[in-house]
Amino acid sequence: MARIALVTGGIGGIGTAICTRLAKDGCTVVANCHPSEAQAAEEWKQARAAEGLDIATITADVSSFEDSTRMIQEITEKFGPVDILVNCAGITRDKTFKKMELAHWEAVINVNLNSVFNVTRPVWDGMLERGFGRIINISSVNGQRGQFGQANYSAAKAGMHGFTMALAQEGASKGVTVNTISPGYVETAMTLAMDDSVRNSIIGGIPMRRMAQPEEIAAAIAFLASDESSYLTGANLPVNGGLFMH
Q1: What total of structural domains would you count in the chain?
Q2: Residue 159 domain-assigned?
Q3: % pLDDT > 90, the chain
Q4: Tens digits of per-residue pLDDT, 215-233?
């Protein structure tokens, strides 16, 4: 029977690659997006169908525990219990700390970090009971090394891996693994829209002299989601082209 996979932030650049890969690997995939993106999600779903992929979409504000719980209930009723959860939803509100307002801090912490609790909590008990689960948290190289102007984002992304390591210990004897992926710079619509000089400066600092393709991030997730990764838990895979080595 196909595994049920939920990808939060699933219609974004990296999310799309993750959903595509998991669907091609035989999973039943549900892509989450914010309620404000409902129309975009419908167009996204049709684009995937044109590629021969049947991927469901569901709207929910993952910064809300109530809405996240409602989402999980709907997925369970329609498809079955979630076996694979990829926490990929994220936003940035970059400001130097001197200019950072409480709203900038709270928005990023709520969407990037609190969402990980909000979405994982409703699937956790079922995974433990069934003796199988894969939770994969998408952090960032900037959660490992920090980044100027990203105190909020770096804190949230670092917090994700703290969550990973703690939860991994709770799920380890029950067949539930919890891991983190920390991508470096990835070639998406957002990075392609950067000024050429900025993008070239970033690429110049990466030992591989290029950004990652979204599919390379998705490949790492596919491994962590598979049965073959059953002895790997609590890890942080740095898929960053050598940008940061720890």
Answers
A1: 1
A2: yes
A3: 96
A4: 999 999 999 999 999 999 9
Geometric angle at alpha carbon 190, from 188 and 196, rounded to 5°? 95
Q: What is the CA radius of gyration of the chain?
A: 17
How wide is the angle at C-alpha 130 spanned by C-alphas 15 and 110, nearest 5°?
A: 40
CB 211 within 8 A of CB 14: no
pLDDT tens column, 126-141? 999 999 999 999 999 9
Does residue 153 have an active-site annotation? Answer: yes
At residue 246, the pLDDT reads 82
Identified catalytic residue from 124, 153, 163, 185: 153
Q: Which residues of 150-189 are buried (b: 16+ CB within 10 A; e: fewer)?
A: bbbbbbbbbbbbebbeebbeebeeeebbbbbbbbbbbbbe
158: in domain: yes
Question: CATH code at 17?
Answer: 3.40.50.720
Rounded CA-CA distance 191/199 in Å is: 7
- Tell me, what's the pLDDT at 15? 97
CA nearest neighbour of 6 among 135, 111, 114: 135
The pair of three-digit structure tokens given for residue 182, joined into one six-digit string: 């920390």
3-state helix, strand, coil in the chain (%, to 5): 50, 15, 35
